[in-house]
Amino acid sequence: MLLTQRAEDIIRILIRFPQDNPVTTAIISEELNISSRSIQRELPGVEQWLAAEGYRFVRKRSVGLLLDEPDSRKRELLALLDLSKSTAVTVDDRRDRQIILRHEILFAAEPVKSYYFTDKLGISDGTLTSDLNQLERWFETYHLNLIRRQGLGIFLEGSEVSRRQAVTSHICSQLSQRRNSASMQSLDSSRQSIRISEIPEQITVSVTQILTDGERQLSLRLSDNGYLHLLAYISYSVYRIQQGFIIENAGVSAADLSVEPEFAVAEYLMKQLRSQFDLPIIERETEYLTLFLTGVRIWPASRRDLTTKRDFDIHQLTLSIIRNVGDSLGVDFSDDSKLPTELGMHIQPTIGRLRAGIPIENPLLEDFRTNYEAVYLACTKGCASLSETYGLPSFPAAEIGFITIYFVMALDRKAKLERRISAIIVCPTGIGSSRLLAENLKKEYPDLDIRGTMSAFDIDPKKLAKQNIDLIVSTVKLDTSYRWIRVSPILAKQDKMLLNSKMKLILSQKQRQEQTARQIPAAPLTRDNVEYISSLGDEIYHLLDNIRFGRAPVLQNREDIIVHAASLFADTPETEQHFYEIIKKRDQLADTYMKPFHTLFLHGRSPDITHACFGYVHLEPPIYENGRIILGAIISFIPEGTKNKTAAPLASEIIGALLEEPDLLAALRNADDELFASLLEVSLLKYYKRCVTSLI
Fold it and tell me: What are the extents of the domains in the chain?
């Protein structure tokens, strides 16, 4: 760090005063003939320079300043000032002057008046303007704007990421100069002694130790320059987080980074930092640290292949594990919608840990090996096959133990589903006593799948069979051929005995039907079946890749919503007018308000499109119409005609999924396109599987 002439003058005054005799800023101000405010602004630089050189400077509120060093140390300090006098800034030293300006602006907590710089550096307003013009270009390289506003001062505008990049570069350039002046051949022998004067010493000391331990435990190999940049960035980041400044947007999602080995290293470092400095868990900090690590050489030559980026399709990779483990166990997991999602969330960081060689502890490993031996062995075999296919390192036992957990839970869900019986409740009017019966059934038979209630007059055997209802539980005698049982709403002991017997019979019949179904050869697959399945798959992926979300400006009424919605998929004014006419006509034909969603469902057929379209317009603030709240508008178009046979069923399936899946609806209302697309993909692939199963 460079020392200004004024800062040097202050230090020389401090040297003259005894160790136990503080000097006030008023005395220094009078001797140097400058204001006390100017002295206060200079003191942080004095403190940082002295700390960097190993001297103790004390500031006591309402008492004064003192250099807490014996006379012998003060004489050494005086000699150091005489030897390094050339480093003090002069009016003619433009380069050093601009370094000080850059430093002051980067670390200023508030706008700085221009007269502070002219007074401190002893330069004119014109010289300051010239220096700032040159500095402006340097700041722009880091996407920071140097603002000069009359009456307010000089300050920077830009993102937290940009500021940290600029400060890291600035700090490293200062450290490099210090190293060069000390004739240091290598940083390795002096890493423990590096101090960054701009940051509290306890931060840099702790970060140095964390990096040293990380290199040893993770088998990293940082170059001198890489170590310097990483130390500066992490130390300054800790300092900023402690002050309440965090990264809001790392520029890339964790889903894109978590398979990279650098992500696992970033997670390790952030875990150590949180423990050491009591920092909160901030995912964006980990994400950007990952990006920072990708730009620093952290791997030894023997592991340099880790930096080769691979396109891992986590969904496909997860399905491969499920298929491999299912084949080993002889179990079909394809009807479990939770398994791909839950296992996929675990597999993503696992890939990063494998590639980085970072171990993970599993305290329950032996329990799973012993209690679920068959599942553990199947997972071991499935993961080994996966390593060969994708060129990944072998899965260690601890990782396989965690993967085993997900399949044990899936097997448990499957067993519960096979034991479940679906039922509909019936009473004379469909209300009243049916509610009491439903509550009693839920308490006594938690595995009973109660699909709803209906009136005795609405029983339709064909409809019930289509819905796979196993049993009608009624409070009255019924005249129907469908399987039913009559019980009291209070569910007396005799009723429970009858129910137990009936449910046992149903389970036995279902098991025999499943065995028979496995023995019946599948119907031959036709060309039409193949074409439909292929078309459906293409339609699903095209729709998932083209979901559109919009946030409308302040709208006044339904007509405004329709006008705005028409523009969501329009590329030209003509197309926008075309879509407007379609949804306007549909809205006039019948009310498009959907009460469960509190949205308008604006849809129709168009000859100008070839695939189904789906989008959502979020209203902020919402619109109130006839006592109803409108939070947004769902926009859906499908091709006109019969050429595309899969678009209409697919559009209908999306609406059904919104009705059945609260998380999907919440993501839609929040206009969280990434989460919505992810959840919708799971739902539509489940629908695709059902269609495939029904056709073959």
Answer: 1-84, 185-225+244-307, 314-408, 420-517, 528-695
pLDDT in tens, 68-85: 888 878 887 887 787 665
H helix intervals, 88-200: 94-107, 114-121, 125-140, 160-181
Average pLDDT, the chain: 81
- In this predicted structure, the answer to whether residue 519 has a pLDDT above a threshold of 70 is no
Each residue's pLDDT tens digit, 435-465: 778 888 888 887 788 888 887 778 888 888 8
Residue 189: predicted pLDDT:
46
Classify each residue of 519-551 as buried b or exposed e, where b means 16 or more C-beta atoms within 10 Å of its C-beta.
eeeeeeeeeebeebbeebbebbeebeeebebbe
- 318 falls in which pLDDT band (50, 70, 90)? confident
What is the fold of 420-517? Rossmann fold (3.40.50)
- pTM of model > 0.70: no
Strand boundaries in 366-448, DSSP class E: 422-427
Q: Which helix (H) or strand (E) holds 452?
A: strand 449-455
DSSP string covering 322-367:
HHHHHHHHT---TT-SHHHHHHHHHHHHHHHHHHHT-----TTHHH
The single-letter code of the amino acid at 133 is: N
Distance of alpha carbon 110 from alpha carbon 156, whole angstroms: 9
What is the rounded CA–CA span in Å between residue 425 and residue 433? 10
**Per-residue pLDDT tens over the stretch 102-160:** 988 998 888 999 988 888 888 888 889 989 998 998 888 778 999 999 889 999 999 89
**Does 528-695 carry CATH code 3.90.550.10?**
no
Q: Give the Cβ contact number of residue 81 at 10 Å.
A: 18
Whether residue 187 has pLDDT greater than 60? no
Which residue, 584, 679, 564, is CA-closest to 632? 564
Q: Which of 556, 549, 552, 554 has its CA nearest to residue 564?
A: 552
- At 255 the pLDDT is 58
Q: Which residues pair with 548 in a beta bridge?
A: 615
Do 540 and 685 contact (CB within 8 A), yes or no?
yes
**Long-range CB contacts (< 8 A, 24+ apart) of 479-488?**
484/426, 487/437
Reported as type and span, the H/E element at residue 485 is strand 484-486
Spatial CB neighbours of 459, under 8 Å, sequence gap ≥ 6? 426, 472, 478, 480, 482
The Cα angle at residue 505 between residues 503 and 509, in degrees rounded to 5: 115
Strands 599-606 and 593-594: antiparallel
Fold of the domain spanning 314-408: PTS-regulatory domain, PRD (1.10.1790)
- Cβ atoms of 50 and 8 closer than 8 Å: no
**CATH class in words for 1-84:** mainly alpha
Which pLDDT score is estimated for 80?
78
CA–CA distance, 617 with 626 (Å, rounded to integer) = 20
Question: Is the per-residue pLDDT at 524 higher than 70?
Answer: no
In the block, tokens 């200079």 appear at: 42
Place of tokens 């670390």: 107
The reported pLDDT for the residue numbered 433 is: 66
